[in-house]
Write a structure and sequence with these properties.
Pfam families: Glyco_hydro_62. The chain is mainly β and 338 residues long. 2% of the residues lie in helices and 40% in strands.
């Protein structure tokens, strides 16, 4: 496995055009909460990279009392559910509300960054991804909630500032986030200043119906100057009320503008309409997750096809308060020609 500190730009590659229709197959439930003293109800929001021949996963743990973070690693997906959990409140990340992690290696500083929400847009750093005790105490990108986001959180109804995501190009680093009210925000700072100097947010994309642009964005570089944006949405109508799926867009610039690619419930990037379950259909929702990355640096490079996506899914019969929902993790594998 190539080391990112030796090969800091692993994502330079040639690609073909992206398809406009996608198909996937899903695994059975891959990872569930442990039956331990933590009493976790759901495991959610996974971020995953392959480094030193191992899969490294960071995720949210959810229960009625709130959220925190967990780390685990394994060498084969068949081992994923048996691997021990390290609850990150044992590190300097600490206790309290922490959720929705994203991990990447910031090559200019030779540090791993863990981005997450704690009521603000937060981050911790570590020089060794395999040492979960090594994460630093939380710092934030902003001194408080930026005014534009604060305004968005109450229009058209009460929203939540969630799901921070960082991606960099050769000059700048960009921070995306959501207000759960139909708006995707973007801030930026220079590569040299990162993580300091984040600008006031602007609206990167918005929809009048909040469910059509809800949360959990991923942005990736797919080569040849093309960027891929994924956003989780909530289905409408009798056939999809409450069912989660992903739309996609492309752009030649992280700052946009963004052109729809597979961007409807009927033709999603991934969702109930295009995911097959060879075994048991254990979820209708394809929710918050990440493409499995072998290029681990801040440019978030992926190939143009052949993807695997680690996601959260939910028993359709589950009926409890939101924090207590029994989310599990599954793995999508892209199928078909691309």
């Amino acid at each position: 496995m190539l080391r990112p500190d030796v090969y800091p730009s692993l994502n330079t590659r040639q690609t073909t055009s992206l398809p406009t229709n996608f198909t996937w197959t899903s695994s059975d439930i891959l990872v569930s909460p442990k039956n331990d003293s933590r009493g976790v109800a759901g495991i959610k929001d996974p971020s995953i990279v392959i480094y030193n021949d191992a899969y490294h996963v960071f995720a949210s743990t959810a229960k009625a009392e709130g959220y925190n973070l967990v780390y685990f690693n394994f060498t084969d997906f068949s081992e994923a559910n048996a691997t021990p959990f390290y609850y990150l409140d044992q590190s300097a990340i600490g206790t309290g509300y922490r959720a929705a992690p994203q991990v990447f290696f910031f090559a200019p500083q030779k540090l791993w960054y863990l981005i997450y929400q704690n009521g603000n847009a937060a981050y911790s750093t570590n020089d060794d991804i395999s040492n979960p005790a090594g994460w630093t105490a939380p710092k934030t990108f902003y001194s408080g909630t930026p005014p534009l986001i604060e305004k968005g959180l109450i229009t058209p109804q009460q929203g939540y500032w969630v799901d921070m995501w960082v991606i960099c190009d050769d000059a700048d680093c960009h921070l995306f986030s959501h207000d759960d009210n139909g708006r995707l925000y973007r801030s930026q700072t220079t590569l040299a200043q990162f993580p300091e100097g984040m600008s006031d947010p602007v609206i990167a994309l918005e929809e009048p119906r909040k469910e059509d642009l809800f949360e959990a964005s991923n942005v990736y570089s797919v080569g040849n100057g093309t960027y891929l944006l994924l956003v989780e949405c909530i289905g409408a109508g009798e056939s999809g009320g409450g069912v989660r799926y992903f739309k996609s867009w492309t752009s030649s610039n992280i700052a946009g503008p963004w052109t729809p690619l597979a961007a409807s419930q009927e033709n999603p990037f991934m969702g109930e309409a295009n995911v097959a379950f060879p075994s048991t259909k254990w979820t209708k929702s394809i929710s918050h997750g990440e493409i499995v990355r072998t290029d681990v640096d801040q440019k978030l490079g992926i190939g143009a096809c052949g993807w695997k996506y680690l996601y959260q899914g939910l028993d359709p019969a589950a009926n409890t308060d939101y924090n207590s929902l029994p989310w599990n993790l599954g793995l999508l594998t892209q199928t078909g020609e691309c």
